[in-house]
Amino acid sequence: MLQVREVVAAYGPIVALHGVSLEVPEGSIVAVLGANGAGKSTTLRAVSGLLRPRSGSIEFDGQRIDHMSAEQIVSLGMSHIPEGRQLFSEMTVLENLRLGAYSRFTGLAGSIGEYRQRRQDFEAAVKQVFEYFPILAERRNQIAGTLSGGEQQMLAIGRGLMGNPRLLLLDEPSMGLAPIVTREIFEIIETINRTQGVTILLVEQNANLALEIAHYGYVLETGRVALADTSENLRKSEAVQRSYLGQ
Amino acid sequence: MEEFWQQMVTGLATGSVYGLLALAIVLIYRSTTVLNFAQGEMAMFTTFMAWTMLHWGHYWIVFPLVLLMAAAMGGFIELVIIRRVEGGPILNIIIVTLGLFAILNNVATWRWGGIPKAFPAPPEIQVTGIRFFGEGALDIGPTVVSYHDLTILVFAVGIMAALYLFFQYTPLGLAMRATAQNPIASRLMGIRVGRMLAVGWALSAAVGAVAGMLIANLILLQPPMMMGVLLYAFAAAVLGGLDSPVGAIVGGLIIGITENLVGTYTPQDVLGPDMKLTVTLIIIVLVLLVRPTGIFGKRAMRRV
After folding, report:
1. In angstroms, what separates the C-alpha of A144 from chain B's closest C-alpha?
2. Residue A62: inside a domain, yes or no?
3. Could you list the residue range(s) of the whole structural domain that residue B269 is in?
4. Short-list A59, A62, A28, CA closest to A46
5. Is B90 helix (H, G, I), strand (E, B) or coil?
């Protein structure tokens, strides 16, 4: 579903990715692991179009997307849930969800029928998000910035799902959360993948947790892929255990 | 007492004009953090366009046309000029809007000349026997209000209400608010941030155009007419909080009323009408010492 080949990406003069290649098969969960500054977030930013790669190619469903803007890529069915969640913190939960569906409903509806259809699709998507995260239904009219960290992460994921994506890019969903909340969120991520068939590319520092739900894993080191294997093999690998699993 | 109410109403009316122009400034500032120094001159320019068009068209036909033209001008300025400097050093943008100020001012002087021109008030409309706009005055009990003052108030309130509904209940309004709050997240939602900024400039220019047409009736139409108004409008925007549309209008009203009351009630040899600008600005400085973000402002101001 997603092929990243030899991608070089830089922030001004600082090169963050020195030719990263990775593949995300349809229906899978792929984890990208690595220390701070290894290029994990940069990889996601390059894929979602926030950062234009200097060279290399990125294909989504067989279509080259490395020259597209982030705005275009969303409408192809890819949602990027960025590091630090990036909610619209002065808006309500529902408004955040509405914005999540923005790419599906741009432009005026052509007819009353289309308008009704959109409304229905939107309601269905909200209902689905509320099923995954019932707490968001309770807080629907609350300002996003006043939610707890876990609730904010849930809203970020919910907002990403509103676009009805086939590929979800998740950047550090565990960041700043209590272990018990993290576990809950990871369970839901797995459910989303299993029941809805949404493919997931997951960036995580918590390698243990990520490899529990992922099918494949890549380990990045200073902008290069150091290891790539099934998560089962990665968990067994001595190098990974030593560096990332703390065993 | 009647004079007091009279001054209050007049203050509210001029304050609404300051508020409208302040609103135009805030609309741009909160989405781009650009302070548009050319806001007043854009309004002056569109008012001149209205003046020319009034030679062949009725006021109520010209009015919406001018709003459309102002919007087109605002969008054009953003797309063609501001976009090149956006994201660059803040001083570059300030210089560009100051340059715009000079250009619009000079073109207006060259095209229409410097002699002040009378600009009509919105003419009367009868709706089922009730009179809107037009000349004359209305007795509202404690005082008599001129129709033009009432017109200005109606416009200010109407525009506020329309903008509120637009931002709160339309997808485009929601997307524009999102862009102002978090441009990166907005891009990830599929919102074309650049387009939203152009729409913001268009909207702002249209709001400014209304302010220009309303104030021109009070102070005569001429190229430098908006200089004083712009000063008050900036003061109003800062007082209300630069990122708050409600604050802009409230700030404008406070300044309009203060200005009028100071001009009327302070003794001639101490302060008097000549000092009303000074007194008003001193009050603003005092308010900002207590609340640096303005009355309704949220965003922490950076020290420059």
Report:
1. 12
2. yes
3. 10-116+152-290
4. A59
5. helix
Which helix (H) or strand (E) element contains residue B27?
helix B2-32
**A231 shares its domain with A195:** yes
Residues of B with CB under 8 A from a CB of A: 171, 174-175, 177-178, 181-182, 184-193, 298
| Number of domains chain A contains | 2
User: By the 8 A CB rule, do A20 and A26 touch?
Assistant: no
Q: What is the CATH number of the domain that holds B101?
A: 1.10.3470
**Is residue A84 a part of any domain in this protein?**
no
Q: How far apart are the first and last CA of chain A?
A: 34
Q: Which of A240, A200, A177 is nearest to A34 (CA)?
A: A240
B139 bridge partner residues: B144
B187 contacts A88? CB cut-off 8 A: no
Indicate whether A92 pLDDT > 90: yes
Domain of A241 in residue numbering reads as 1-77+165-247
ipTM for the complex shown:
0.90
Task: Classify residue B284: in a domain, yes or no.
Answer: yes
CA-CA distance, A61 to A84, in Å (whole number)?
28
Q: What is the pTM of this model?
A: 0.86
DSSP structural state of residue B243: T
Which of B184, B189, B244, B298 best tests the A interface by mutation, with the highest count of A CBs <10 A?
B189
**In terms of domains, do A177 and A158 share one?**
no
- Over residues B119-136, the pLDDT tens digits come to 988 887 777 766 777 777
B244 in a domain, yes or no? yes
Looking at the structure of chain B, the number of domains it has is 1
